[in-house]
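Hi team,

Filling in the usual template for the complex we talked about on Friday. All components are listed, including any nucleic acid strands or ligand strings, so the model treats them as one assembly.

SUBMITTER: L.P.
PURPOSE: interface mapping
COMPONENTS: three
RESIDUES: 1008
SEQUENCES:
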Amino acid sequence: MKKKLLSVLLSTAMVAGMFAAVPMTASAEGDVEEITWMFWDDLEATEDLISKGYADVINRFNETYDGQYHVTPITTNLEEYDGKLNALIAAGQTPDCFICNPGPNMDVYVNAQAAAPLTDILENQEKEWYDGFTDGIFERMTYDGEIYAVPTNFAAALCFYNTEIFDEVGVEVPTTYDELLDVCQKIKDAGYTPISCSAGTAWCLSMVAGYLCDRQGVDLAAIASHEANWTDENCVEAGTKLKELSQYFQETAAGDSNDQATAGFYNGEAAMLIQGSWAIAQINGNNPDFESKCGVFQFPAIEGANDPNRMIVKTDNLLMSSTTEHQDAVIALMKMFTDETAQKYTAEVGGKIPIIKDIDIDYDAAPAQLKYVTDILANATGTFGFYNESLASVEAGDCFDNAMVDIFLGNQTPEEAFQTVQTFYEDNVWE
Amino acid sequence: MGKNKTIKKPVSPIIVILYIVLALLVVIYVAPLLWMLCVSLKDNAAVMSDPFGLPKVLHPENYAQAWTMGKLGAALLNSALVCGVSLAVSLFFGSMAAFAIARMKWKLSEAAHTFFLIGMMVPVHCILIPLFVRFANLGLTNSRFGLMIPYITFSLPMTIFLMTGFFKSMPGELFESAAIDGCGIYGFFFKIAFPLARTGFFVSGLMTFVGNWNELLLAMVFISDPMKKTLPVTLTYFVGPYATNYVQMFAAIIIAIAPTVVVYCMFSNQIVEGLTAGAVKG
Amino acid sequence: MDKILKDKKAIFIFIAPALLMFVLVLIVPICQMLYYSLCDYAALTPPKFVGLANYKKLFLKDSTFRIALKNSIFFMLFSAVSQQIVGLGLAVFLTNIPKGRNLFKNIYYLPCVLSSAALGLLWAFMFNPKIGINALLAKFGIQGPLWLMDTKGFIILPMWVIAFVALWQYAGQNMMLYMAQITGISRDIYEASYIDGASRAKAFRYITLPLIKPMMITSLSLNCIGSLKFFDLIYNMTQGGPNHRTEVLATELYAEGFNYFKYGYASAISVVLLVMCLVVTLVIKRIIKVENYEG
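RESULT (copied from the run log):
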């Protein structure tokens, strides 16, 4: 009896399994070109405004090219993204188009020849599209003169501040590091947290460290070619300043996540937040009243050191698979990501900065902070990437981030921490 | 078994202390889960500002949103199908192998036992890519069937390991008397070992089912089609690149937990029955 | 009788399905893993044979690996001891109380059936300095430590926290296994011993303990292997941070393989992990000798 029951159960289960194994044949009808696009956030459950904008683009693409092209998104969460993408690439199932961070991450896909060069298409076939992009935006996507990616937006890291607290305490926007310390002290004396920062999410702290390093004149290119060292005085000095500044962070900065640090700012507990401009959407979304009292200023200068008008920026980038059979469809998709509708959404709703020129942003519709950000960017003399995305490898970036956390936690002196990074470079990069 | 009730013992102070200790433990066990339930009924701002308070305004819509956004309906069915089939097949195959290892006489039985045990020691992360490449070549990725195969295989070591123990502890006389009655080797397995090992089935079934039900990495990498994703994968939807939607995530987690708890309660009572039946041996 | 049990064909039929799946899905990739551990292999570019270079680097240079090894061993010892004691204790308590056995058992076993990933998120929330346990403590004027970020000491606080959460989650599993075994022991034996004047403690020492020995091997092996492979809770509570100080072998190999794309190196770590699991299981088998039931 039992045996029979079990075998019946087994065979039904197996049959069910077989049915499940029949591959999807959605693309079989007509000659619709079916492509896939891989992304690191679910398009329906997401709260992230940029992701929602991407979902719009996907829908618009499938409607516009109905009967000609069709794109299916493959989504994972951010943490499993690389693992899944690598597995797909290794199995020869590279998605036709996929998103990627700039820096060492992109290096991996370019070096593995998983990404297709786009220079020829951009410069010859799609000249008009190419010319529409903001000048210099392709700089970090170019390898040996070949462009490998198309950006969809970019964000800049800035200091957001609570104008109410600043007025109440009676302080002005600081333009130098010394003024910043002074402002922080006054705010602290008035009973507020001066700066909300997260060391629980290492890259948040590392962003501040990146700014301090750059203001101190740390030259990453020189370090990469070993003309300069991590143990040089300017690095160590940046570390010392990081430690100095961190006394003005909220008490729980060591364990707070990025979400919490941002929440501390828009809930009015902290006066300043040093974050990427994507935080605008998060701030206004969670506390709509805050928009009117949120100001923005650029990271202060360090007197007698480097150019203070340099900005940390980061792009989201689309890569095309080197093995795709549907180049035209992928290009059409990339164009839709960068067309005016998508870019206006990026700015007005998403709070990130468009990557095309000649675009009419309705600043009344956009978050108030966006205008300030754009104004600051207009004066920028140069840009550089997030430090953890600008070093020799992902691991090197993590090594830097961790060293900064160690300085903050007081586990290592700035000298020791930078010595760790130096040793990492000696062992892994400069060999 | 009726003897149990014939001897009445007075309630000793030790028993009272025991109950107090056990009750305290219950608090430690239940409080975090209740807290999770509580959070799932708040909104995100309230979670940040007053994490331990009771929700002032109830937000049951978190569940509805989590259900539709996470496509939890489809995910539940997928998980049930994949895990159910894997459970049945792995228990069947596993117990067969375990029976041969535990009761049959052959030179390599001990070696086979150790060999299967190795399967438990392999970190999934490391064989993920070779496994995926092989399955992709066979056209088995992005299918529920393709996911069942590794699930069954990963469940085998645990099943074999536990079932070997249970088969070994069966008294040999049972088989001897069955042999006298003319029972063959397949009869041994299906008529004697199989029914008597019910406890073993429940214990190892529960353990492997739970393992597969919660498995994320393989499911994440193997399945791309949103309609074929399993529950743990959909739970990750709520963790965004820059911000996490805690309330919906916890709501989704509770939805995901609910069937396990129900199945588990059913199972655990079965275990007690199975134990009583198994106690025949003594 | 012996003839029936030596039936080669039957043995083959019983073993074959499991063996086949096992070899195809597990053993072949494991062999690949062994080979990759000797290669410089960056996931997307073809592997290049480099001999023992990965292992050399692992043991001689990699300070994170040393931390991970230390944490893994700590975690295994702590889990093995604590889960055995708590699990066995609960099992004995529960088999000795007159009422409510099922209820308690169900509650204690509950966390085992929940996903470690979800519980990891939950506990990370609880040990968060701002909104978790520390917020509660602050109400009583106590300033709680940085549960998941403190880095002082040989075994740092976050490892203890994680180890206790693991104990919370998995003690029920041992309890269940032991209960299955204890309930299987005939009441008659106990009653006979009580009539002979044995105390409960003596009965435990001379009846329960010897009879649950086989289960002890099982549960101890499961504990040790499980805790060596331990991943989900740590990954969701600390992600190995701050600065890799809560890294264990499983999280380190994940980071090397999936964050840094160093598959060859990650394979070398898994080989070390595999060998450790094997050694520990063999040691357990050696230490706990069981009388053969077959007779």
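MY TAKE: Chain B touches chain C through 105 residues (CB under 8 Å). Residues 1-6, 276-282 of chain B have pLDDT under 50 and may be disordered.

Thanks, L.
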